[in-house]
Amino acid sequence: MGDSFQKAFLFVNCMALCVIAVQLIPFSREKELSNFCREYYALTKEKDELSQNSKISSKLVLKRGVISKKTGLNTEKNVDDFCNSFYFNQQ
Q1: Each residue's pLDDT tens digit, 37-62
Q2: Which of 8, 46, 67, 73 is the least crowded, having the fewest Cβ atoms under 10 Å away?
């Protein structure tokens, strides 16, 4: 009898942990996009301060590609608008 209670309690604990983990997925995706946008914003500011540095430009293109792939945006203007609104709404 006690063994069945222990198994039931273990099952309930496992299910609770699964539900908590699934609820955290959207939060982690949002924070991941937030971090990508912050890095993108920092690279654009660094590019503006320095002359046309090819290393920064290539990093900027890579970040823009990652953000556009994760969000489904296709043009540079859309990625810029998304990151600006996303970044400034987080402050």
Answers
A1: 888 888 888 776 666 667 777 788 88
A2: 8
